[in-house]
Design a protein that fits this description.
Blueprint: H1 2-35, E1 49-62, E2 74-89, E3 92-107, E4 110-129, E5 135-145, E6 150-153, H2 166-172, E7 173-177, E8 183-196, E9 199-212, E10 242-257, E11 262-273, E12 282-293, E13 298-308, E14 321-335
Antiparallel strand pairs: 1-2, 1-14, 2-3, 3-4, 4-5, 5-8, 6-7, 8-9, 9-10, 10-11, 11-12, 12-13, 13-14
């Protein structure tokens, strides 16, 4: 019994020692954790770019069998791309937009493909903040042409057989425009005013550019000057393929978002050439587009394009207003980064 009591007493005396050692170990571990170097969190690099691509495609067809009311079997296809890439960092902004459109139709009454729409349009605007709010110094670049030749189609006057052949129709058509015929390239320096999201006004009083007509037969139509030393043209090649212009350009862009499904955009571009009747002979381009989203991937689009160029012969050796209108119902899909 005496030995048991001594053993319990010895064990009780050892417990505080073990507890003290455990406290020391815990304190040492805590100190080690505190002294450990902090692992830096990964910092994501800021993205100064925003991009989007709107793709649309429209197809239509009509087939008639014993249809007394008349008409022709026909097919049409249209495709378009509207791509935007914009950069914004502190005082610097850079906006880029590329529009590509192409469409054609085939009708039984004319056994060949007829182009219905054709456009290549690129615009770029570099801006730097001024001391005035919403006002930037700007440098702008615009380029416009088309992919393929465009014709007007007349009825063949003479042909062999009961119906004109494809070659008869081709011989009767008249060339109106083509790739780089014409092409417009402008570089302007000025000011850009953007008071809100829906309005942008760019005025470039120093705008230099070129009008290019690569097809000799069309150079007179687009007002190209005669080559040096030639006073009267005897051949289409007597005209220059390029004309330099230096003047002022005013461009107004507006975009109204009515709701999530309906929006309207318009762009008006005015140009006057200091070298040829400034502020009298002015070039006008006015584009309008209304887009109504009917479903997730389908939209109804209405577009108009108006052009007036005092140097372009439209009819009877005189300039005139050119106007084009489209109504499209088709598949539309937008590629854009997801918002975080």
């Amino acid at each position: 019994m005496k030995k048991l009591i001594l053993s319990i007493a010895a064990l009780a005396a050892m417990v505080p020692a073990f507890a003290q050692d455990a406290q020391k170990a815990a304190a040492a571990a805590a100190a080690a954790l505190t002294a450990a170097p902090d692992v830096p969190e990964e910092v994501k690099k800021p993205n100064y770019w925003t991009e989007s691509i709107i793709n649309n495609i429209t197809f239509s067809q009509q087939s008639l069998t014993n249809w007394v009311a008349g008409g022709y079997n026909n097919y049409s296809l249209f495709a378009g791309i509207d791509a935007n890439a914009n950069y914004l960092k502190e005082k610097v902004s850079w906006k880029n937009r590329l529009q590509l459109d192409y469409g054609f139709l085939y009708s039984q009454d004319k056994p060949l493909l007829q182009k219905s729409k054709d456009r290549i349009y690129f615009e770029s605007l570099l801006g730097y903040d001024t001391a005035v709010k919403h006002l930037k110094y700007s440098a702008s670049l615009n380029f416009k042409t088309q992919f393929d030749n465009n014709y007007t189609y007349g009825t063949p006057k003479q042909f062999a057989g009961d119906e004109p052949t494809t070659q008869d129709w081709k011989d009767a058509r008249v060339l109106k425009s083509g790739f780089f015929a014409p092409a417009y390239i402008n570089l302007g320096l000025g000011l850009d005013w953007t008071p809100n999201k829906w309005l942008s006004v760019n005025f470039a009083p120093l705008t230099g550019g070129f009008v290019i007509v690569d097809i000799p037969a069309l150079r007179k139509t687009y007002g190209m000057p005669l080559k040096n030393g030639i006073e009267t043209a005897a051949d289409p090649s007597d005209y220059r393929f390029m004309r330099f212009e230096f003047g002022a350009q005013l461009k107004v862009d507006m975009k109204f978002v009515i709701n999530d499904n309906l929006n309207y955009t318009t762009q008006l571009v005015l140009f006057t050439d200091y070298l040829d009747h400034p502020f009298i002979y002015n070039r006008v381009n006015w584009d309008n587009k209304v887009s109504w989203k009917l479903a997730k991937y389908f939209a109804l689009t209405f577009e108009t394009y108006l052009i007036y160029d005092p140097k372009v012969i439209v009819k009877d050796n005189h300039p005139g207003i050119q106007f084009r209108e489209y109504s499209l119902l088709g598949f539309t899909y937008t590629f854009a980064p997801k918002k975080k």
